[in-house]
From TrEMBL:
Pfam families: Phage_integrase (PF00589). Keywords: DNA integration, DNA recombination, DNA-binding. InterPro entries: CB, DNA_brk_join_enz, Integrase-like_cat_sf, Integrase_catalytic, Integrase_recombinase_N, Tyrosine_recombinase_XerCD. One of its GO terms (molecular function) is DNA binding. This is Integrase Int. One of its GO terms (biological process) is DNA recombination. SUPFAM superfamilies: DNA breaking-rejoining enzymes. Residues 156-324 form the Tyr recombinase domain. Residues 58-136 form the Core-binding (CB) domain.
Length: 346
């Protein structure tokens, strides 16, 4: 009997044999008609695979599970999982070959309805595109991938604050956040690297810390030179936690985008400022102080020079000397010509 019930399950099960290949599995339903439809569809697909050479149909969930297994090392894995949770509501049970342009447009509208920006939608679309491409090129599960166009993103300006604004912010923060904010402004470390910094990654004698390759976004180890202020900040944390540098009430600090952070920004009169903008602020201060972009790239652990070029427009002040030098030469020429004329006239 190809359709039956087991004693230990209320769902209908199927038993199919096609060209020597046997499959015995649950239909996932207690409805006999739905189970029969599932049985007939699966048997047809198996026949097409064996007799006609048609590729087996894979579900979106199949691709997601394999993607997650193959990208365990990915730095943005947590962000991927958040997007995949949203996508599961719309693509659960959908075959990969059924994902077309219309379905992608529907995903876009559903995501926009959650009041997110185009940038967030694009990160989701890039994930869908990456999974489908891998399913097609590497796994050979798909013959073709639908063309996925990204939404237009606004040109973002670099958000940074002045030293005076930073001082106002620090004064408004509770002690545990004050320390990690000041440290971030001294080092430019990303949030996860600052909160996850352990004592085993710090050498106060040599005045250096380091971020391991598996902790860095670029997947390359990052040396972090410590200023005198940064060393003082770290010394003040000694004895508060046995493993982590920054802690609160005996526990490592994990969440920083808290009510205390937001209220401190409000009291300091600072608007439209995120925690990650501390890193932008650090980089902007460096450039304005004359730090070469190639040096900033190494200090910040960016994997490409393009990531640092967005700060280049802030470095105009230190170029003023070259302009002055040009006009100083012109002034010398004028003075020399005046002197030569006076000599000839005499």
């Amino acid at each position: 009997m190809s359709l039956y019930k087991r004693k230990d399950s209320s769902q209908w099960w199927i038993k199919i044999s096609v060209n020597g290949r046997r499959i015995q599995k649950s239909t996932g339903t207690e409805d006999r008609q739905a189970a029969q439809e599932y049985h007939d569809r699966l048997k047809t697909e198996l026949w097409e695979q064996v007799r006609l050479g048609v590729k087996p149909g894979y579900l979106w969930q199949d691709a997601v599970l394999r993607w997650l297994k193959e990208t365990e090392h990915k730095a943005s894995r947590d962000h991927d999982i958040k997007h995949l949770r949203f996508l599961d509501k719309h693509l659960n049970g959908v075959y990969l070959h059924d994902i077309n342009r219309d379905m992608v447009d529907s995903l876009i509208q559903s995501k926009l309805a959650t009041k997110v920006c185009n940038t967030t939608v694009n990160r989701m679309l890039q994930l869908v595109r990456a999974i489908l491409r891998r399913a097609s090129i590497e796994w050979e599960w798909l013959d073709k991938v639908p063309k996925i166009r990204l939404l237009k993103e606004p040109d973002h300006r670099i958000r940074w604050i002045t030293r005076e604004e930073a001082d106002r912010l620090v004064l408004e923060l509770p002690e545990h956040l004050k320390a990690i904010v000041e440290f971030s402004l001294q080092t430019g470390l990303r949030r996860s690297n600052a909160t996850g910094l352990q004592w085993s990654q710090v050498d106060l004698v040599r005045r250096i810390a380091w971020i391991h390759a598996d902790q860095a976004k670029s997947r390359k180890a990052i040396p972090v030179p410590l200023s005198k202020t940064a060393v003082i900040i770290i010394r003040e944390q000694i004895g508060k936690h046995h493993s982590y540098v920054f802690s609160y009430k005996g526990k490592p600090i994990i969440q920083v985008n808290t009510k205390a952070w937001r209220l401190a920004l409000k009291r300091a009169g600072i608007e439209n400022f995120r925690w990650h903008d501390l890193r932008h602020t650090w980089a902007s201060w460096h450039v304005q102080n004359g730090t070469p972009l190639h040096a900033l790239q190494s200090l910040g652990g960016w994997h490409s020079a393009e990531m640092v070029q967005r700060y280049a427009h802030l470095s105009g002040e230190h170029l003023a000397g070259y302009v002055d030098k040009l006009f100083e030469l012109r002034s010398v020429d004028v003075e020399q010509n005046s002197y030569d004329s006076a000599t000839l006239n005499n």
